[in-house]
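Project standup — Tuesday

K.O.: blocked on the structure for the chain from last sprint. Re-posting the sequence here as requested.
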Amino acid sequence: VMLKGLKENGKGISYVLVWRNGRPDHFFAPYPGQKSAKDFIKFKNDKSILFLDELNKILK
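H.V.: unblocked you, prediction finished:
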């Protein structure tokens, strides 16, 4: 859902924050084995998305 929304309406968006996962029943990003984890991996692997670890490699 987030990837589709960013690609369709994300012009000008440069930063998205996902909050921490507080406990197993209170989470903001999927954890391994959670039902939307595969979608999150697809999001992470999309060439238009950079995570902090990837950005740091580009900026060095």
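K.O.: great, moving the ticket to review. The two ends are 32 Å apart (CA to CA). The chain is about 40% helix and 0% strand.
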